[in-house]
Design a protein that fits this description.
The protein is an alpha/beta fold. It has ten helices and 16 strands. The longest helix has 14 residues, at 130-143.
């Protein structure tokens, strides 16, 4: 095969630590009906990436190219595609979980998982948004229907999903409370958080009451104790499954709702996210970038749990992007 027939990708042949990730040459994909071929310019790295790298979870096939976030340029369109043309700049999330594979130079996916990239942001910013922003949007808007004046508690508010959720909740007119370590409080206030709680020194369950919506990326004890701060009629939206069989009974007694969400590819959601970006209401904080070849370093950094916002892989070595 010639160079135009292949592409660089980050693949793994076994589950394990970051060291299992290797750069390989793979056949360049061809778009099928209703698909587009995107030349990837940037691709976010999310916790689901390192969880799948280590354990498989939903996608346990090997070899595996990880990555769901995409920002890039349409290279070709398949039969029946009318909403994009070659040369268009697009961003989106590959169908989660089975459509994985954006940590590569090219990717094919259904056209309608993408939206036009807002002209006012670069590919690094756009590549950071899809999975985390869709998760926050689908949790707060589609599931919880956050409305003006409601009190929204966001756990891990400085994380990839959390910091975008703060902005989305504020765009809906909510009063937003975030939990984070003290060094990240000024950052959260800069995003519009009305209150910030240091989870290391304060117990949110003792200080919070009458919460309308809780967004919980953590599960475990945090999820269980979050039920107690909800007002009757409130909703807890969790990003991870719960393990307590008594949860449903307690929720019924308190008159609250518990939902566990798994993010879905969503053309309308991506367009809504693009609209928020263009309105100046949503922006990803970029912790740092890594060139594609250094994906293992990106995973190792992400797994420390000490990053703020997002880590992004780029096709060219551009260095850290501004927040």
């Amino acid at each position: 095969m010639t160079n135009t027939d292949t592409m660089r990708a980050i693949s793994q042949d076994t589950h394990g630590g970051p060291e299992v990730l290797k750069e390989v040459a793979l056949p360049r994909p061809v778009p099928g009906p209703s698909q587009i071929l995107v030349a990837v310019r940037a691709a976010g790295v999310n916790p689901t990436d390192w969880v799948h790298r280590a354990y498989g979870v939903f996608v346990d096939r090997l070899p595996l190219v990880l990555g769901w976030d995409v920002s890039g340029v349409v290279e070709a369109v398949g039969f029946g595609v009318t909403i994009f043309k070659p040369g268009d700049e697009v961003f989106g999330m590959l169908p989660y979980p089975y459509g994985v594979g954006s940590h590569a130079e090219y990717v094919t996916a259904p056209a309608r998982v993408f939206a036009h990239k807002p002209a006012g942001i670069d590919h690094v910013q756009a590549g950071a948004l899809p999975l985390a922003a869709l998760t926050a949007y689908q949790a707060l808007v589609d599931t919880a229907d956050v409305r003006p004046g409601q009190r929204v508690l966001i756990h891990a508010a400085a994380g990839g999903v959390g910091h975008l959720a703060v902005q989305i909740a504020k765009s809906r007119g909510a009063y937003v409370i975030g939990t984070a370590s003290a060094p990240k409080h000024d950052f959260l206030r800069s995003l519009g958080a009305d209150e910030v709680i240091d989870y290391r020194t304060a117990d949110f369950a003792e200080t919070m009451t009458d919460i309308d919506v809780v967004l919980d990326p953590l599960s475990g004890e945090t999820r269980a104790r979050s039920l107690d701060v909800l007002r009757p009629g409130g909703v807890l939206v969790s990003l991870l499954p719960g393990g307590d069989p008594a949860e449903a009974v307690k929720a019924a007694e308190l008159g609250v709702r518990v939902e566990t969400i798994l993010v879905e590819a969503d053309h309308a959601g991506m367009k809504a996210i693009a609209d928020l970006v263009e309105a100046g209401a949503l922006r990803a904080h970029i912790e740092t970038t890594f060139p594609l070849a250094e994906a293992a370093k990106a995973h190792a950094l992400g797994e420390t749990g000490r990053t703020t916002g997002k880590i992004v892989l780029v096709m060219e070595e551009t260095g850290p992007a501004p927040a």
